[in-house]
Amino acid sequence: MRKVEKKVDQYDVYRPHKASIKKRRLAGNIAAYTGLILISAVWLIPLVFLIFASFGVNADGTGGAGVPSTIFPEHWGVASYVVLFTDSQVPFMRWFLNTFIMALATAILSSAMTIMMSYVLSRFRFKGRRFMMNFMLVLGMFPGFLTTIVLYYVLKMLGLTQNGAIGGLILVYCASSGMGYYISKGYFDTIPKSLDEAAYVDGATKFQVFYKIMLPLAKPILIYTVLTAFMAPWGDFVFARYISFGYSDSYNVAVGLWSLLQQDKIANYFTVFCAGGVLVSLPVTILFICLQRYYVSGVTGGAVKG
Amino acid sequence: MTKKTDFELLRYSRCKRGAIKFSYWFLSIPHKLKNLLFKIGNFFKRIFLFFVNDIKDIGRTFKKGSYKTKLSYVFMGFGSFARKQIGRGILFMGFEALYIVFMTMFGSHYLARLGSLGTVAHEYVRVLVNGVWVQQIVYHDNSFKILLYSIITIIVSIAFIYTWRLNIKQNKICEEIEASGKKVKSTKDDLRSLVDNDFHKTLLALPTVGILLFTVLPIVFMILIAFTNYDMNNTPPYNLFHWIGLDNFNQLFGWSSGSKYFSAAFGEILAWTLVWAVLATFTNYFLGMAVAMLINKKGIKIKKMWRTILIITIAVPQFVSLLFVSKMFTANGIINTIFHTNIDFWNNRWIARSLVIVINIWIGIPYLMLITTGILMNIPSDLYESAKIDGASPWKQYAKITLPYMLFVTGPYLLTSFIANMNNFNVIYLLTGGGPKVTNSFNSGGTDLLITWLFKLTVDNHNYKFAAVIGIMVFLVVAVISLIVYNLLPSTRNEEEFQ
Question: What are the residue boundaries of the structural domains of chain A, listed by start?
């Protein structure tokens, strides 16, 4: 073995450092691995700390301690999780259910709107199409929160705030979702037009083409749209807080858990917040990782299309 | 001075070349402005001509039309009924009836008071309740309702005029069809075309109505609010608010003698918002690209696992991770314990600002990693091979191949992410709540962006007029930046470069 290498070295005058190249590559790999491990640590540590903190309890074993100052809680226990389901101040099940209902409704309605809009803008050429696209672009430049003040008033007249905030929020999430057509339009644009033309030649109506040919082909982007629509209510804070203001039975998890960190509560509820955070993150994360493939393709495609 | 071509410019040094190019650009400004004005003028001219032609067409149709068409001018849908298009007739006539009822019962009352936004908000009346005289409050004009319903009335009226025009057009088309001896469309045909030739109208109906009601209407309303004095002291139904013209904008720019704090706070926050948006966008972009390149590196195994680790942070709802991280950095939080320090991160404006940017990197890199990974793999590898043969160092390869390619492909994305960062509510509000507090700053804090300030002004202070003004300013800033950047983007300038 060594003999052969020596022979190569002798004749290969133009690549005298073959061994050192190998060495350098190894060094590079080691550096890269260290970097990756460090990065992974930085990205996971806060989440790990969160899980640790959620198992912190008071000295007497009751749940709901304040902000921890150490990585590992002084007293371990699951009491903070128990508080989530027993304390009448923390209707966690209610919040979770609220968010789940909103997420389901939004996933269905809002993705339907988005897909309808993007399909039309991708496949049909009609008068006013360019105007519509530019108009929506300009509309998107206004801060979204600005609309809430009026919507709050209108929804209040309809009885869809505070007590009925869930219905109101679903409306807010879904009504304007046609404006988020960019990514799925980009996807529809990539499906060859010859497919529709072939179907039209065979006598299909436009509805049939949409329903029987395009929708099945657009499955990846459908899943992406539904996934993002489903995840939105879990993280929404601005609209949810404004519309359900002060009525804790119609909070979503974000507003509910946020309310635990206000000055009057944080000292007794911080670990409860952590426990709630873990319980919310688990299902969402699992769902997300299962459908990761679709998410990645959607995000990547969207960025390239712009 | 004659303009030199790119080829001639090559003999100058890089620095001089840049200067000459800049001077060309500078000299072309008047020309460009003239073009822009010309374009705007043309735009209005086209709109004007469109209306003139439309009105002429309406007149012509009336002159030529049969009695069916003529009667349709007053009774919408008459022509349709007469031609046995029952479906269309019902829709047209029904809409006209509804519109008349709506206007007489509702719309005109509010529209009449749009100019004043109401005169009397409330009064106290003595009422006899169970034999005792009690003072009771009676509400009259509600400025909010007057403004809102007036806008709705105007929108409905525009829709009515459009439908009326449509009704006339339909009559014209039908007459042409009848003149050529063919049969006009029946209701059945109409319904069928809704899933076929006019399928796009079916699909668009719901999303468009949603956008009109839930985005356009509120935005128009809030733009108008910027010209009123709607704030805590002028809140309906107890009080009225009024039109005050450009007064709010004068205060914003410090031209009027009102509160000088408002314009100072605005300038400060606008500057920080722009700095934040630039830093947040570019730190994420370059570091995200670096991480993606690290994972893509030859010889790195289990690439999928590294990616998944980063992706987990996207999946965890932001309010959980951000709120927790913000508590990690409190005065006696975990971070201070680990490093045995005693820094009050969130109470010093500059530390808080830097920290927000660092934590935003933590939030943003996974997205950028995802986005750039795919694009990086698409770069043709022969580019790198030939660069290697020419003896280019890895850094040179990055600067001359990777970066230009990435900037070219992700240019539009950079613009949208810049705008998204300007309006990045979650990161700022959940981490710092806009704090630390600053005195005399109109309730704004050291890390507040325009968007979080807007939120606080509405939710905490009920200062809707300034919130509306800030909203308009955000729009203007975003629009101007988008226009400029869009014109500078390489992807729009020379599209063929990398294809």
Answer: 1-54, 84-305
pLDDT single digits (tens) B373-385 = 888 888 888 888 8
Question: Stretch A29-39: mean pLDDT, rounded?
Answer: 90
Rounded distance between C-alpha atoms, residue A36 and residue B323, angstroms: 26
Distance of alpha carbon A260 from alpha carbon A92, whole angstroms: 11
- Using a CB-CB distance cutoff of 8 angstroms, which residues of chain B are in contact with residue A210? 199, 203
Instruction: Show residues of chain B in contact with A39, CB under 8 Å.
Output: 291, 294, 306, 310
Report, at the CATH architecture level, how domain A84-305 is classified.
Orthogonal Bundle (1.10)
Bridge partners (DSSP) listed for residue B139? B122
Positions of chain B with pLDDT lower than 70, given as ranges: 1-2, 257-259, 489-499
pLDDT, tens digit (0-9, with 9 covering 90-100), for A195-239: 888 999 998 888 999 999 999 998 889 999 999 899 888 888 888
Q: Report the C-alpha gap between A58 and A54 in whole angstroms.
A: 12
**Cross-strand pairs, A76:** A56
Any A CB within 8 A of B319 CB: yes
* Cα distances (angstroms) measured from residue B252 to each of A129, A134, B259, B263: 37, 29, 9, 5
SS3 label, residue B40: helix
Which DSSP string corresponds to A105-158?
HHHHHHHHHHHHHHHHHHH---TTHHHHHHHHHHHTTS-TTHHHHHHHHHHHHT
State how far the Cα of A137 lies from the Cα of A123, in Å rounded to an integer.
19
**CB half-sphere exposure, B149, CA atoms < 13 A:** 21
Going by C-alpha positions, the residue among A255, A272, A257 that lies closest to residue A68 is: A272
Structure tokens at B226: 């910027």
Q: Which residues contact B162 (CB under 8 A, 6 or more apart)?
A: none
Query: What single-letter amino acid sits at B227?
Result: F
